[in-house]
Amino acid sequence: MQNSPESRGDWRLCVAPMIDVTDRHCRYFHRLLAPQARLYTEMITTGALLHGNVARHLDFDPAEEPVALQLGGSEPEALAESARLGQQWGYNEINLNCGCPSERVQRGAFGACLMAEPDLVADCIKAMQDAVSIPVTVKHRLGLDYDDTYGFVRDFVGKLHDTGCRVFIVHARNAVLKGLSPKDNREIPPLRYEAAARLKADFPDSVFVLNGGIAETGQALGLMQQFDGVMLGRAAWHHPGILSEISRALAPDAPQPEPAQVVQAMQAYAGREVEKGVPLRIAVRSMLGWMSGRAGARHWRRTLSDPALLNQNDARLLEKAWSDLVLRTSDGAY
Question: Which stretches of 224-296 are DSSP H helices?
Fold first, then answer.
């Protein structure tokens, strides 16, 4: 079957698609922290790909792989062509956004509001499946507004399951389409992990990845016992060290770069990007929260967010920030 995953381990640890967050620089950093994680692009609309600068949206470093392209759209033909571009560019998966609740996305008739039109979503999935040979997956919510009837999401998943879709990333909250901001939609609708677990039980031949409210390493590892994987969102942005912790727990014998090696790799990467014209602040902003909870973390963050230092566009700023942090530890070592 076209969408049967080769291994249920493929989706054990995922980093969520986050607009204005998971750009290629962030993904490069996250790959260093989590060598086996599956990374996702920001949501990219079909219009941006079909009528914009394709290279600007789709270019990525091979080191990021496996990386998935998340698309926003609701027209089967446009999604099929965008998926085809994604495969040509080297992405490992095409993911359809059926979970974003923002009003801007709703005006484009895609995102979470698509859950009200399962037949259309099925047509979109089939069109993309016909266009590519890589997995076509879906990220969705549990319901719309304040209707928490399990049958709604069961029927939605069932319709897509009938197309051959076998990977579902479940944000275990409803999407409230009116009256809540995207931030509120990540926090106010209650988490319902039990409903996501029912989906896994009802569709046992499919992969279900749980998203929403996962902020601790032990919590993530525990949920991996119930689901085929977990997807971290804001936790990976605000406290990226959690990716290293989970990765080490999942594969304790696998090579994992030490923090000093991560700094060296990111300094080399940032230097190359600056030479291409990328501002240093853009290349390193995903690292700001990396040292959260460590001695010297405040100084680390202050150094990497200082406009005067960043405007020099000298990637050696990372080496300085790291050296200062090490000096601030009690024994001079990380």
Answer: 234-238, 241-250, 259-275, 280-284
8-250 under CATH 3.20.20.70, yes or no: yes
34-46 residue pLDDT tens: 999 999 999 999 9
- Is the omega angle on the peptide bond into residue 66 within 30 degrees of 0, that is, cis? yes
- Domain 259-327 sits in CATH at 1.20.120.1460
Rg (CA), the chain: 20
Long-range Cβ pairs for the range 212-216 (8 Å, 24+): 212/170, 212/171, 212/172, 212/173, 212/186, 213/172, 215/239, 215/242, 216/242
Reference 142, options 197, 85, 65; nearest CA is 197
| DSSP designation for 184 | H
Q: Which residues are catalytic?
A: 100
Domain range list for the chain: 8-250, 259-327
Task: Please write the tens of the pLDDT for every residue from 244-255.
Answer: 999 999 999 988
Dig out the tokens for 80 from the structure. 């099929």
